[in-house]
């Protein structure tokens, strides 16, 4: 559907044109004085200089046209047009047009959201978990933001792949192998002459693995010889040593299952479970080509590609392709991964949702990929760098003991807090209170994160995030649950249920709003397609959060000011129910795009 703001801008544009000004001056924006008007047009202000006229004179000419020549059209879209000094045009939307617009939304697929740019193939690279190391809160943001960005892109009709891009090829593998060898040197994996099959069962469980890694990591810091061995083991693994590859397979299988469990709990799902290891086969040819075509040259023994540009404000160092010992790096892997992605999926856009401290890395990778032809210039490579999640002390989030907080414990803490609140609120059986706590807890975590602009740091505040009041996930869910319960009471009153109720609801049309709160709610809802569009183009899920917060507030005001189920006029009551249904539908669509859902009651 056409966005309301565009419809209004067209009408205003026509009026400017008829007054012999540029029609682009008719651009309408949402009012920044909601006490005075709903929309406004500031076009006259911008024209004043060029035409040597006072802006209000221009504004008056334009409104004159709207009230004269264009009266029919203006009446259809506006219920108020006022010129105010120095030259703003204040607009109020026509109540009957608003009703008509929402009625159409209610019947449209995706409530009227359309993608004017057409469908694209997009890869969202997010999650970025490192295999064999437990997920920590740093990975939380990547998962939450990435999942939402992916869902929004898919909702806009694109073909989207979410790729976890695991860190599965680094030193952590060599550390585990080395530690395992010290503990159990007799295992066949370490016997170079062994040619038989390796055991199907891994020689460790996930909890052992989680203990082996930090132990080995600490050892490598205290003991140089151990570190050397781990580096060597990493090298041997990467160069195809059979026994080590078999251990790697075990680690991968066990870790992936564990990661999947954790991501499932967060409502985060990847289409591809690829990792850094998958890019390795592409490296040798890629490097050869870069050398042959003269992009890569040797500098202090290392192989590099220059990526600085004349307009750079700061120093952009060359992109390193191979270290002096011939080893590849994080950049090499990301470049090779693009080759793989191109081969498998040929994306038109790749979005990386990664900690913003990796900014420079991605500047280098993107420039190098374009310069060397790994990616066509037309492909858009986007870095959505997110800020740090801090504790209340303003420092990166830690456990009470000051250690790195594991994701699982963080989720458990929130769920416990939610459970307490839910069982305090009313009598519920333990089992269903726990279930609800999980659903609401997830909204607390995700909304707490997503309501902030991704690039900013934010404070993870359990008390605030789990509150049922204010700008929180639980408040949004509470609002949805309230609507659901009114509709179910309506269903009891009317005896309509299931399919019958749904069919009846489809036939209900909204009211022409006749009070301020009803109109205010309708005005919010009418912004839906515009909000989803900006959230998509600007990679900005926080815009959806702001929208549903405004909508939930508008709904709750409407709810307090209007008697819905006791409304005596039957048609008007149906109109209210239609408005409730639309509000519920849009709120639920939005929270799904944010990656959580609402319970039946709470
Ligand atoms: N594994 C990396 C880390 O934990 C994040 C990977 C991000 N994605 C990428 N394509 N580099 O820092």
- Cα-based radius of gyration, to the nearest Å: 29 Å
The helicity comes to: 40-55%
Strand order of the largest sheet: 1-2-4-3
Contiguous low-pLDDT stretches (5 residues minimum) are none
CATH homologous superfamily placement of the largest domain: Isoleucyl-tRNA Synthetase, Domain 1
Helix/strand-derived category reads alpha/beta
Structurally, the number of domains stands at 4
Amount of beta strand: 5-15%
In CATH's first tier, which class of the largest domain applies? Mainly Alpha
Throw out a few tags for this protein.
alpha/beta, Gyrase A, domain 2, 4-stranded parallel β-sheet, binds arginine
Protein described:
With 602 residues, the protein is α/β, with parallel strands linked by helices. A hairpin with a 3-residue loop joins strand 3 and strand 4 (88-93). It has 23 helices and 13 strands. The relative contact order is 0.10. 55% of the residues lie in helices and 10% in strands. The chain is globular, with a radius of gyration of 29 Å. The model has no long low-confidence stretch (mean pLDDT 95). The strands form four sheets. A four-stranded antiparallel beta sheet has the order 1-2-4-3. It has a four-stranded parallel beta sheet with strand order 6-5-10-11, sandwiched between helices. The chain has a three-stranded antiparallel beta sheet with strand order 7-8-9. The protein has helices at residues 4-18, 43-51, 55-67, 71-77, 95-107, 137-155, 171-183, 206-222, 224-238, 242-265, 276-279, 283-292, 330-344, 359-371, 407-425, 430-450, 462-465, 473-494, 498-507, 516-525, 528-537, 541-561, 570-594; strands at 28-30, 39-41, 78-84, 88-93, 121-125, 159-163, 296-299, 302-305, 319-322, 349-355, 380-386, 389-390, 458-459. It folds into four domains: 4-93, Arginyl tRNA synthetase N-terminal domain (Gyrase A, domain 2); 171-265, no CATH class; 277-344 and 356-386, no CATH class; 407-594, Orthogonal Bundle (Isoleucyl-tRNA Synthetase, Domain 1). The chain binds arginine.
């Amino acid at each position: 559907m056409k966005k309301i703001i565009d419809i209004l801008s067209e009408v205003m544009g026509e009026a400017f044109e008829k007054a012999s000004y540029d029609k682009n001056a008719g651009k309408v924006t949402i009012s920044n004085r909601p006490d005075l008007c709903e929309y406004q047009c500031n076009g006259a202000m911008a024209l004043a200089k060029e035409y040597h006229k006072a802006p209000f004179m221009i504004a008056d000419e334009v409104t004159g046209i709207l009230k004269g020549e264009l009266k029919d059209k203006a009446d259809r879209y506006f219920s108020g047009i006022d010129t105010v000094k120095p030259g703003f045009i204040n607009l109020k939307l026509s109540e009957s047009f608003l009703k008509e617009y929402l009625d159409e939304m209610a019947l449209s697929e995706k409530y009227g959201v359309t993608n004017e740019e057409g469908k694209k193939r997009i890869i969202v690279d997010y999650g970025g978990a490192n295999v064999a190391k437990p997920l920590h809160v740093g990975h939380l943001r990547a998962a939450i933001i990435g999942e939402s960005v992916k869902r929004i892109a898919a909702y806009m009709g694109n073909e989207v792949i979410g790729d976890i891009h695991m860190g599965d090829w680094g030193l952590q593998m060599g550390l585990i192998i080395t530690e395992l060898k010290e503990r159990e040197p007799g295992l066949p994996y370490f016997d170079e002459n062994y040619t038989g099959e390796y055991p199907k069962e891994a020689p460790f469980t996930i909890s052992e693995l989680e203990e082996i890694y930090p132990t080995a990591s600490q050892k490598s810091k205290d003991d140089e010889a151990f570190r050397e061995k781990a580096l060597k083991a990493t090298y041997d693994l990467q160069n195809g040593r059979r026994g080590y590859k078999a251990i790697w397979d075990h680690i991968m299988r066990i870790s992936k299952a564990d990661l999947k469990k954790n991501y499932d709990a967060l409502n985060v799902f990847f289409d591809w479970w690829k990792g850094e290891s998958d890019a390795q086969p592409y490296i040798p040819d890629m490097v050869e080509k870069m050398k042959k075509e003269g992009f890569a040259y040797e500098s202090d023994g290392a192989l590099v590609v220059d990526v600085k540009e004349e307009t750079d404000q700061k120093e952009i160092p060359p992109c390193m392709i191979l270290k002096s010992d011939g080893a590849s790096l994080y950049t090499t892997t990301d470049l090779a991964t693009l080759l793989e992605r191109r081969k498998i999926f040929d994306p038109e856009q790749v979005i990386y949702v990664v900690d913003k401290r990796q900014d420079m890395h991605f500047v280098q990778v993107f420039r190098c990929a374009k310069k060397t032809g790994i990616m066509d210039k037309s492909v858009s490579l986007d870095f959505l760098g997110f800020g740090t999640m801090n504790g209340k002390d303003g420092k990166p989030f830690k456990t009470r003991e000051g250690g790195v907080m594991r994701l699982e414990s963080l989720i458990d803490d929130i769920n416990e807090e939610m459970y307490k609140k839910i069982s305090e609120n009313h009598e519920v059986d333990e089992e269903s209170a726990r279930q609800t706590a999980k659903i609401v807890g997830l909204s607390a975590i995700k909304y707490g994160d997503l309501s902030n602009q991704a690039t900013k740091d934010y404070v993870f505040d359990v008390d605030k995030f789990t509150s049922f009041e204010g700008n929180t996930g639980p408040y949004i869910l509470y609002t949805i649950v309230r609507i659901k319960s009114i509709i179910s009471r309506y269903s009891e009153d009317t005896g309509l249920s299931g399919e019958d109720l749904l069919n009846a609801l489809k036939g209900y049309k909204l009211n022409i709003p006749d009070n301020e709160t009803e109109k205010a709610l309708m005005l919010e809802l009418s912004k839906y397609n515009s909000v989803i569009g900006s959230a998509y183009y600007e990679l900005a899920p926080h815009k959806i959060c702001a929208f549903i917060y405004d909508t939930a507030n508008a709904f709750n005001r409407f709810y307090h000011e209007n008697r819905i189920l006791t409304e005596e006029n039957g048609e008007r009551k149906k109109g209210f129910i239609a408005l409730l249904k639309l509000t519920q539908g849009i709120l639920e669509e939005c929270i799904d795009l944010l990656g959580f859902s609402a319970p039946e009651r709470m």
